[in-house]
Structure formats: structure tokens, C-alpha cells
Write a structure and sequence with these properties.
Elements: E1 5-8, E2 10-13, E3 18-23, E4 35-41, E5 48-53, E6 59-61, E7 69-74, E8 79-84, E9 93-100, E10 109-110, E11 114-119
Parallel strand pairs: 2-11
Antiparallel strand pairs: 1-3, 3-8, 4-5, 4-9, 5-6, 7-8, 9-10, 9-11
Amino acid sequence: QVQLVQTGGGSVESGGSLRLSCTTPIPGIPFNVYAMGWYRQAPGEERDLVATITAEGITDYADAVKGRFTISRDNVKTMGYLQMDNLKPEDTAVYYCNLEATPGRGKGYWGQGTQVTVSS
């Protein structure tokens, strides 16, 4: 069963932008009070934390994406976002939305994953 539903992603040239979205169809999941995180996994690599945002709006970013990616959320719409600007080939990976009580723990609820491909 899909816990979180992701949209967006796709292919873009180096320097381009993409936006990922995340929500849940399950009313019992405390979307608006849990922290949201975005993770990514490239082929042959471990899953890495990209960014987190608390329910209060406090954000944190991995050094590799700092200054280029922006994580945000709209609790009224029950939506979370990852805006990715100035994309680089190194950003190519499957991106996963996560929702959990403690940001960055890698537990809780997960989206289905979205492919992001950045060409040179």
C-alpha cells in the first residue's frame, strides 16, 4: 500500500529545475505534525538524506544541495515540496518522500519514489 504519493520528477539538462511534490491519501497519517524529509538513492549507492523540514518549518540540507534545493510544506493543503534548481548530473537519483516524527531518522512513512535524471 502506498503511504505517501509523489509527483514530479523527470529529465532535465544540467542547470535546469524540477519540483517534486508529496502528499498522503491516508487520513490517519499525521501529515501536518510530522517532519518531512526527502531522500535520494543513485544506482549502486546508499540512500542519502537530502533535506528535512519540521512541522514548524525549520529546514536542514545536505551540503551537496545547499543553496540549490528548497524544501517546503503547505499544511493547509497537506502538501510537501522539494524545489530543485541548478541541477547537476550528480543529482541523478530516485528521490523518496518521507514522513516521520523525528527528522532525518529514515523511518516512518515513505513515498513510491520518483526518478530524477540530469544530463550534462
